[in-house]
Amino acid sequence: MPIPGSSVFLDMKKGRVIQSTGSWYKVDIGNHIVESRLPGRFRLEEKQVTNPLTVGDWVDVQINTDGSGSIEHIYERENYITRKATHSKKGEHILVSNLDLAFVVQSIRKPKVKEGFIDRFLVTCEAYEVKPAIIINKMDLATQSDLEYLEEMKNIYEALDYPFFTTSIDDPGSIKKLSAAILDKTTAFIGPSGVGKTSLLNTIDPEYDLKVGEISDFSNKGKHTTTFAQLIPLSQSGYIADTPGIREFGLVNIEPWELSLYFPEMLEPRQSCKFNTCTHVHEPGCGVVTAFEDGEIDANRYHSYLNMLDSLED
Predict the structure, then answer these.
(1) What is the DSSP letter of 215?
(2) What domain range is 20 assigned to?
(3) Which H helix or E strand runs over 82?
(4) d(CA 164, CA 156)
(5) Cis omega before residue 111 (within 30°)?
(6) Of the residues 53, 155, 249, 270, which has the fewest C-beta atoms closer than 10 A?
(7) Distance of alpha carbon 137 from alpha carbon 165, whole angstroms
(8) Residue 224 included in any domain
(9) Which letter does DSSP use for residue 49 in this model?
(10) How many distinct structural domains can be found in the chain?
């Protein structure tokens, strides 16, 4: 991704945020990393956002005499991945910004695939102008029925122009294909804990020996090993954002009436709807419902739409 043009400031350096721990940020200014703080005024300006600065942001940082930095300017983002804030916090939480490609990562087993999570992620990418892709990992655990299920899923998403990867750290061919897709790009791996995001990163670039967690036998859910977001420079060229595991992906800043705009298969049928405010659920003369009943819209995708619509209306 090209570096946006920078304003000229005395004693300022332009860099990219590569790690966020909440209070301190690591900023890559090209020749070294600067531990930097964010002045409180930025937090006051962004009251509806839990983190006014996120991994992937371009900033101007003033270097202090002790070698630390003070972030003085945040550049406008080209795009970003966001979700509804958790732990009773209001607003949104921005995960990573300025991406060429964002992968939603799921595992075929331990834990099993959650199509609802995938669809919410895809809607967010469509809404915030991020190009998405899908990874189904741990294919070494797949049964014959899993393979048949995945083939159907792959056909559905690829028909919608979403790249679909199946991977295993024990399958060099799948890792090679994934590595080629991220070459020279800024990408992100986002998904629940335990799906193998960090293991994939370690296999793609063994130079970055990141900590890998084990799966809980009791719940088949992963234990959190990535506790903060980080942008990892790859030796082959490019960056990958590794993010903490996410159990749920809540939509933000999307109105119920516009949700169908982020389902590619609904764009053409919705033009036939009788009402401009059609929710594509019960209204007469609905083009989307007709397309669904005629088998032109996948049932699982339509039910994902209904579940999201319910959550937005609530």
Answers:
(1) B
(2) 12-76
(3) strand 80-84
(4) 10
(5) yes
(6) 155
(7) 8
(8) yes
(9) B
(10) 3
